[in-house]
Structures are given as structure tokens and as C-alpha cells.
């Protein structure tokens, strides 16, 4: 099972360093049943899994009789491991091959095979890690006494282990007794989905397939044994909501799913809640047994692939006949529909969370990540970028845990080869190497992930560029942060600054929390402290906006020397710390005086005034600033200010207005405003090229807010509506920049209400952007809405003719206000691909992307880490696919005064205490993660090497798979 994606060349360096320090034992661990094959050869007898598969119980009716045939091809496979760079390999021994009857005579052919495999590994410099049991109980013992339901298995398994220790222990130093025992007992004895398929009504998933069993007691009986070196399967459980009930249920889920098995090894008994809810159905340890079990595991093996959300379910405890899940009194929720997703979601912080949990709750025992990997459909492609992203991310999560003190000794990815997988046979694949099942020789082919993993294990390539994420594809890519002066600067009435229309808006109490940006994060006075913090975190660039009202207080005319001084000081401070300034000229902050005089963006007069303001900026700061963005997200500004009316100057008319506006025309003004914005941008770009480009050699671009629009259904109407939405949201801004005019569908729908470009204006706008700035946060779902506008009075949304939903479960509506929606990094990947394919692959900077949290969010903001890591992974994948993406800016560096929500939401990597008069800054976990991602100094990597434990591993299989 599986999980997530990597970060920067600095992180690549750090991760590689970790495993060099851990002596990089890259492991891929197969089960004998998954990979070994030769099920009926050389004296091997059936295991319960053979019986299960031959009864046609697999989804694809397959079996592991041949699997990857590693029994015959082990030399070829070990050579492939050595070529890949593995330092260790984890595999399982088949009890049925070594001791065919489960007890008694040892099979010499079995001894010979495992001796040969171990010797071959060692001769190639690969350390062997062995698992004794991976789902494959000899059928003879199941038939004789019910296998794991009988105490008799203790002596038989111990005798089998004794043979292994005696025959192979001179060359094996790391043994795991049982693989993911918790999943085995639940699947084998509660829901009955894996052999021996014992369950009882109503708990079995398919009671018709179960043999006689008792789901209320057998899972508790089956797991008791007293041996060393133990593996457990672990989800990272997350409360479904922040209620006390769901939080308590989450702890209960941890106790039932992990504590059920780990507590006895650490504390000598089951968790109290497990004993309380299961009652007499869970066996008790005698004092002797408790002493035997406690401390009997020298390490814990951990299989981890994904997170689950937990919802309290107290009603289940009221049922008289209960199984483990009912005793748990919690509903476990996957983030996908059905039993298996196409691929596992990527949330590396989940692995970090599990390791931190083991550290805090169980005294930081030695840990090996025994299984972690990404599932895809077999035969899809050798270019398995999702697997690369997954491994990058999870290794990053592991690194963070080690840095935080976790005693994790090694990491094994599942799996080295595509193998015979539990339940779904050959339908899915986890391997770094593709196995051609149609080839009689079962030929192996390396996937992209094998090349990546090999490069990683051999030291990886280290970028020497400003902030590449893997040299060969992102030499010019930078990842950094940004803020707007409106949201961070404060000092609105100081040193000559005059009001902008956002000041007027907030002072009228229009914010959700009735707040203002008068102080905000006080960046005006604290810029030196903030730049020092940026430098410590490792930022190489910082995007901020200039306040037009501070620099040119009346919108035109006299320049404010205090404004010039402040921005010179900020820019110089950044540069002195090696941080490149990226500047936005306009971020929602029109001088109120121009709004009062001629209606701001509704008048063409603004073109001249904005160009004069831009001229001041280029002249005063252009010797040190090379990246200029004229206007931030003009499409959203035009809609929110002149259609829905939720932003200043709050102009709208029925039916477009979300509020009751006192003035405006939602049918015309959004189009007028954006038309003037485009002409303003183009005029400013022409000024720069004519007057400053030769000397300053900078770039001037325009920003656009981009949802990724995807069809709610596959109907032709919804697919067509989705393209229309892309044309209205993104094409409205980008098509004129690339083609010199608006999209045809907009011309058709809006008619004469959409201004026309003259030939001169078209030529001026076309090609006026050296790059596109992109603000992106989430995906929306589009449904055709052919009846709009029902009133016969058109506005922007009516012209677009769609309904929009934030998720597939939401009811689509005609209006849409950006908000906090589920993370979907693939949306950014698709959007970058769309810009590449539809607009000639322009240079793109992702200028805003980030995750909001509540005002009282924890400093341990793991959700933000997941979000940012996922979206950076998608950016990387887009670059690999050819997108000309140059950089990525997280919104935002600090918690700031946010548009609409004021101080109710937080997007920052750094916490600002707005209750403290000093506005104290404190880095969150995301800042630490981002810092690790950005830094690429060998000195720091060298210091980390001294602090990390010297042992570890990296690859594995089970005898099932090879």
C-alpha cells in the first residue's frame, strides 16, 4: 500500500545525505508469495494463500504459482538490485518451502534456495533483511488446529524460526517475525477478505465466502504470540472534524489499530480502551506472558501508505454482538470512493505524524519503514511520475521525522518488481521495475522511478542554480514566498501615505471580522526583522507589492520621499541577505482619490496615471528589481469589484450582485474595467521596453487568477461548458496577451458589452507580457447552465452560462466566491498543461499558492505542509512534461490581514501573534519544512550527517511478489 512527492535540490541533497549517513540501505521488500513463484517445485507444499488463490478468490482470478519467478531468476534480480544501487533488500521466507508440513523435516531444496539468495545478495554488497511470516501459513497447520487461533502455533512457529536463525543467522542481522499482523488478523478473522477467511455475520464483508468463525473474538485471539522483531501496518488517523468526539475517536482508532499490537511490546498489556470495549473477548496476558512479550521487539517495522479520517461512532457500542471495528466505535473514511483508488493520495506529513506518534507515545523505539510505495495500474506507463512524486515526498517526511529526533533506522519502498499483489493480483503494480507477464522470460524493464531511485541512492545530482527542484528539469525554477503591502505593511496613515479604496472599505466595517489593515503585520516597521527571518529560512526571492498610495499619495503628481525611502530600504535589505525582490505594482489598492475623481478602473484616464506611477517605480528601483508584475489577479478583481460587488469599490447591479450595491452595472462594468487593465498593463510594458529594458534588462508580466475547471459530468454539455469557463476565467486575460483579442465565445456571449480593441490596441496588448503570473489554489467543477440569465439581464456569470461547485458533492451555483476548498494538486498540473497547450507555453511564475487555516490554528500545520508539498510536486511534474514554469511562490510568508476574512484565517508559514503588541513572529512547522526544502548548503548537510544514527535500509519485497 502507499504515499507522496519531493521538493528541491537542497532537499534532494539532504535526503541523500540522510541515507548516506544511515549507510543508505535502499530496500525493496517482497513477500515470497508475491515474487518467488515455483509454488509446486522442489518440495514446497501449499500455504493458505495458495488455497485461497486456487479457489478463484482474487479479483483477476490469478495466483502466485509463477509470480515474478524469482525462485529461478534471483541472480538476474540481484544483479539488477546492485545496478540500481541497493544497499539492502528485505524479503520473506516461505515457511511452506523451508518446512513443508509446518513442523518436522527441513526441506534441503528450500535451504539451498535461501542460502543461494542470501549469498548472492552479500556477494553484491547488499545486506539481507528477512521476514519470517508474510501471510503464508502452511495449509497443513490451518487444517490441523486452525493456525493462528491455536496456542499450538507458538511452538511450531518458534521451531520454524529456530531453523531460520540457525541456518541463515550467520549472515542475517535483521529479522522481522510477522508482517503487518494487525491487518492480517482483521482481514483473516474479522471481515474475512484474506485467508483463512474466517468471519461471522454481520461483520464479514462477504459472509458467503467465510468459513465458520467468530468475528467478535477470533481477531483478538489470533494476534497473540511472543516473539521478537515485529511489523505493524499503520494509517495516520486524522479527526474528521475538530470536535472533541472525533478527536477522542481518533485516539481510540490509534489504540485499536496500532496500540493493540505495540502496547504489549512496550508496556506489557493491551491499551485500556481496547480491554474496556472488547471485555472478556480479548484474552488476558498472564504475568509470565506479559513479561515475555514486554520488550521482546528490538525494533518495529512499519508499513505505511496513506491517511484516514476518523469520525466518532458511539452507536456501534450499543450493538450486542460486536467485532473489532464496532469496539473501536469509529468510522474510518478514505479520501476516495470504493475499495482501491487509482493511485494513493500523496500526504508525506502522515508518515512524519506516525513516526512522531511512536516517538511520543512509545518511547522512541528503533523503527524501520518496511513498506511504503505508490500503486498504479499495471501496464500504464514506464513513465511513472506519480510514483517518483510519492517516494520523494515520503522520504522527505521521513527526513523531517529523523531531524525531529525519531529513531528511524531505514526505509524500504514497496516494491522492487511489479509483483503478484494481495487481493488484486496482477491488476495493480507497485514496482520500480515493470515485469512483462506476457513474455515467457518475464523480462524486467526499469521505470522512471527506478532511474530516480538509483540516482537518489548513488548520491543524486546537486543543483547549483538558485532553487532548482532536480537539476535536469528545473534549472531556472525558484520556490519562495510573497506578501502584499495591503495585507502585511500596515502604517496606513504614516509618513505621507493616503487612503486607498481598501482602507475606506475596511473602515466601513465591511470585513468579516470588522478588522482593518491599519497595522496588519506591521511590515513597515519590522521589515529588517522579517528579512532576517526570510534569510534564516533560506528564501532566495521574495515577492511583495508597492503601495501606490504611499509612493504617489494623490495617485499622480508629487512623489512621497518617505515612500521611496521605505521601498529602497526594503529592497536593499533583501539584496544584502541574498534575496531577490520580485515586485507587484498593484494589489487591490487604488488610491481613493482616483476612484473619487473618475471612477478608477472604469475610466481610460487610469492608463496615464498608472503608467506614470510605474515609471517612478522603474526609475527608482529598477536598478535592483528585474521582475515586475503590473497588476495582481485582474480577472477576480473585475468580477468581485464590478459584478458581485464584494470587493471595493462595491459596484454591481441585479442579478449580478451578491450584496445590495448602491451603484454599478454588472452587465457592462466588469468588461470595461478589465479592458482598461489590459491596456494599462500593455502601456506600462511598452514604457519599460522603450525606456528601461536595455539598461535594466528586467521583465514585465501580468498576473491571472486561475481555477482549474473540470467537468462535473462527462456529458457533452458539461464538457463544452468547462471549456467556456476556462475561456471566461483565464482566456479573458490571457488570450489578448497572446492573440491580441478576447476568446470568440466571449465575443459571442457578451456582444457589444465587451469592448473591442482597435488595431493599434490589439498590437499593443499582444505580446506585452514577458511572463504570466498565476495565482492558483483549487479546482472547481463545472455544470452547464443554458438557462442563465433567467431574468434576461445578463452579467458576467450569466454570459458564461455555467454553475460552479467546489467539490463533486456540492450543489453547483451561479455565483462563486473563492474560499477554502480541498487540496487537489493535479489541478495545478492540468492548468499549467492547459497554458502550455493553448497559449504557446509562455514563461509562468506561480505567484500565489497556499493553504488557509483558522485564526487559532496550531503551529504544527501539517495540512499546509501536505498542501504545499503536493502542489510543488505537481509543478515539478508539469515542468517534466514541458511546461515553461520558472518559479513558485507560497502565499504567504507571514500570517497577514487577509482579503475579506481579515485576521480570521491564516496562510502564513510564520505565525504572527496579533494579540501581542510586538506582533511576535514564530515559525510554524511549514516554515521549518519549507526551509529544509530550500536550503542547499553542504555545510548544513554535513552537520546533519553527524547527528543522524548510522544504520538504515532502503528496499524490499516479500516472497509473494518476486
From TrEMBL:
The keyword Metal-binding belongs to this UniProt entry's keyword annotation: no
Gene3D superfamilies registered for this protein in UniProt: Glycosidases (3.20.20.80)
Domain of life: Eukaryota
InterPro entries xrefs: GH, Glyco_hydro_1
One Pfam family this sequence matches: Glyco_hydro_1
GO biological process assignments: carbohydrate metabolic process
Keyword list, A-Z: Glycoprotein, Hydrolase, Signal
GO MF annotation, one: beta-glucosidase activity
Similarity remark: Belongs to the glycosyl hydrolase 1 family.
PANTHER family assigned to the protein according to its UniProt record, in alphabetical order: BETA-GLUCOSIDASE 11, GLYCOSYL HYDROLASE
Identification of the protein by name: Glycoside hydrolase
Amino acid at each position: 500500500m502507499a504515499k507522496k512527492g519531493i521538493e528541491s535540490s537542497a532537499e534532494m541533497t539532504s535526503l541523500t545525505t540522510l541515507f548516506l549517513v544511515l549507510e543508505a540501505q535502499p530496500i525493496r521488500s517482497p513477500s515470497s508469495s508475491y515474487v518467488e513463484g515455483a509454488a509446486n517445485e522442489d518440495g514446497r507444499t501449499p500455504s493458505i494463500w495458495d488455497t485461497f488463490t486456487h479457489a478463484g478468490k482474487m479479483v483477476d482470478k490469478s495466483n502466485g504459482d509463477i509470480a515474478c519467478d524469482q525462485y529461478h531468476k534471483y541472480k538476474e534480480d540481484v544483479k539488477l538490485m546492485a545496478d540500481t544501487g541497493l544497499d539492502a533488500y528485505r524479503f520473506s521466507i516461505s515457511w511452506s518451502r523451508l518446512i513443508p508440513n509446518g513442523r518436522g523435516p527441513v526441506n534441503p531444496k528450500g535451504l539451498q534456495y535461501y542460502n543461494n539468495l542470501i549469498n548472492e545478495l552479500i556477494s553484491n554488497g547488499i545486506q539481507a533483511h528477512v521476514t519470517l511470516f508474510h501471510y503464508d501459513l502452511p495449509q497443513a497447520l490451518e487444517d490441523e488446529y486452525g493456525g493462528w487461533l491455536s496456542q499450538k502455533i507458538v511452538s511450531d512457529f518458534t521451531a520454524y524460526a529456530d531453523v531460520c536463525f540457525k541456518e541463515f543467522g550467520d549472515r542475517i542481522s535483521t529479522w522481522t517475525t510477522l508482517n503487518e499482523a494487525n491487518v492480517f488478523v482483521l482481514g483473516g478473522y474479522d471481515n474475512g477478505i484474506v485467508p483463512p477467511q474466517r468471519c461471522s455475520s454481520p461483520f464479514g464483508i462477504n459472509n458467503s465466502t467465510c468459513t465458520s468463525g467468530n468475528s467478535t473474538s477470533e481477531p483478538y485471539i489470533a494476534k497473540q504470540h511472543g516473539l521478537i522483531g515485529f511489523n505493524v501496518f499503520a494509517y495516520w488517523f486524522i479527526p474528521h472534524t475538530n470536535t472533541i468526539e472525533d478527536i477522542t475517536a481518533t485516539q481510540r482508532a490509534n489504540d485499536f489499530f496500532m496500540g493493540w499490537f505495540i502496547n504489549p511490546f512496550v508496556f506489557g498489556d493491551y491499551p485500556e480502551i481496547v480491554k474496556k470495549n472488547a471485555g472478556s473477548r480479548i484474552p488476558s496476558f498472564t504475568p509470565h506472558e506479559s513479561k515475555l512479550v514486554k520488550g521482546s521487539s528490538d525494533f518495529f517495522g512499519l508499513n505505511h501508505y496513506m491517511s484516514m479520517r476518523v469520525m466518532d461512532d458511539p452507536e456501534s457500542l450499543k450493538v450486542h454482538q460486536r467485532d473489532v471495528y464496532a469496539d473501536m466505535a469509529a468510522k474510518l473514511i478514505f479520501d476516495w470512493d470504493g475499495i482501491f483508488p487509482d493511485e494513493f493520495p500523496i500526504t508525506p506529513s502522515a508518515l512524519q505524524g506516525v513516526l512522531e506518534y511512536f516517538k511520543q507515545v512509545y518511547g522512541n523505539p528503533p523503527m524501520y519503514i518496511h513498506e511504503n510505495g505508490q500503486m498504479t495500474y499495471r501496464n500504464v506507463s514506464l513513465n511513472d511520475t506519480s510514483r517518483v512524486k510519492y517516494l520523494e515526498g515520503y522520504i522527505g517526511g521521513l527526513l523531517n521525522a529523523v531531524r525531529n529526533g525519531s529513531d528511524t533506522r531505514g526505509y524500504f519502498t514497496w516494491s522492487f518488481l511489479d509483483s503478484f499483489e494481495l487481493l488484486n493480483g496482477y491488476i495493480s503494480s507497485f514496482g520500480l521495475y515493470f515485469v512483462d507477464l506476457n513474455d515467457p522470460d518475464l523480462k524486467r524493464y526499469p521505470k522512471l522511478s527506478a532511474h530516480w531511485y538509483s540516482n537518489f541512492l548513488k548520491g543524486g545530482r546537486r543543483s547549483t542554480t538558485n532553487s532548482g527542484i532536480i537539476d535536469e528539469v528545473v534549472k531556472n525554477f525558484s520556490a519562495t514566498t510573497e506578501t502584499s503591502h495591503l495585507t502585511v505593511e500596515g502604517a496606513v496613515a504614516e509618513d505621507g501615505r493616503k487612503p486607498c479604496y481598501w482602507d475606506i472599505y475596511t473602515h466601513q466595517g465591511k470585513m468579516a471580522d470588522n478588522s482593518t489593515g491599519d497595522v496588519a503585520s506591521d511590515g513597515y516597521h519590522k521589515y529588517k526583522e522579517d528579512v532576517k527571518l526570510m534569510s534564516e529560512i533560506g528564501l532566495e526571492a521574495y515577492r511583495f507589492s508597492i503601495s501606490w498610495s504611499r509612493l504617489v499619495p494623490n495617485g499622480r503628481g508629487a512623489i512621497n520621499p518617505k515612500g521611496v525611502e521605505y521601498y529602497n530600504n526594503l529592497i536593499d535589505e533583501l539584496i544584502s541577505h541574498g534575496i531577490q525582490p520580485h515586485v507587484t505594482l498593484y494589489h487591490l489598492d487604488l488610491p481613493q482619490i482616483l476612484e473619487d475623481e473618475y471612477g478608477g478602473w472604469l475610466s481610460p484616464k487610469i492608463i496615464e496615471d498608472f503608467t506614470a506611477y510605474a515609471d517612478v517605480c522603474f526609475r527608482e528601483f529598477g536598478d535592483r528589481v528585474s521582475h515586475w508584475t503590473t497588476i495582481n489577479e485582474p480577472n477576480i478583481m473585475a468580477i468581485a469589484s464590478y459584478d458581485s460587488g464584494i470587493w471595493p469599490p462595491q459596484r454591481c447591479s441585479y442579478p449580478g450582485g451578491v450584496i445590495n450595491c448602491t451603484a454599478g452595472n454588472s452587465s457592462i462594468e466588469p468588461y470595461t474595467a478589465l479592458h482598461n487593465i489590459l491596456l494599462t498593463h500593455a502601456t506600462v510594458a511598452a514604457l519599460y521596453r522603450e525606456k528601461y529594458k536595455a539598461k535594466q534588462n528586467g521583465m514585465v508580466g501580468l498576473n491571472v487568477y486561475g481555477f482549474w475547471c473540470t467537468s462535473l459530468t462527462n456529458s457533452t454539455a458539461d464538457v463544452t461548458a468547462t471549456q467556456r469557463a476556462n475561456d471566461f476565467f483565464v482566456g479573458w486575460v490571457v488570450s489578448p496577451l497572446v492573440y491580441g483579442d478576447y476568446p470568440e465565445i466571449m465575443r459571442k456571449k457578451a456582444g457589444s458589452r465587451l469592448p473591442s480593441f482597435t488595431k493599434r490596441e490589439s498590437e499593443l496588448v499582444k505580446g506585452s507580457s514577458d511572463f504570466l503570473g498565476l495565482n492558483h489554489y483549487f479546482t472547481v467543477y463545472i455544470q452547464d447552465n443554458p438557462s442563465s440569465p433567467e431574468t434576461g439581464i445578463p452579467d458576467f456569470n450569466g454570459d458564461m452560462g455555467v454553475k460552479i461547485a467546489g467539490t463533486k458533492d456540492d450543489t453547483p451555483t451561479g455565483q462563486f466566491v473563492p474560499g477554502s476548498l480541498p487540496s487537489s494538486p493535479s489541478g495545478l498540473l492540468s492548468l499549467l498543461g492547459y497554458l502550455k497547450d493553448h497559449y504557446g507555453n509562455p514563461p509562468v511564475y506561480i505567484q500565489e499558492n497556499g493553504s488557509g487555516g483558522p485564526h487559532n490554528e496550531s503551529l504544527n500545520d501539517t495540512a499546509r505542509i501536505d498542501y504545499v508539498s503536493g502542489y510543488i510536486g505537481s509543478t515539478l511534474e508539469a515542468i517534466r512534461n514541458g511546461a515553461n514554469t520558472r518559479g513558485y511562490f507560497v502565499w504567504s510568508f507571514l500570517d497577514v490581514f487577509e482579503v475579506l476574512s481579515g485576521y480570521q484565517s491564516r496562510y502564513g508559514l510564520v505565525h504572527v501573534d496579533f494579540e501581542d503588541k510586538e506582533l511576535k513572529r514564530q515559525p510554524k512547522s511549514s516554515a521549518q519544512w519549507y526551509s529544509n526544502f530550500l536550503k542547499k548548503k553542504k555545510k548544513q548537510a554535513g552537520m546533519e550527517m553527524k547527528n543522524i544514527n548510522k544504520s538504515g535500509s532502503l528496499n524490499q519485497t516479500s516472497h509473494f511478489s518476486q
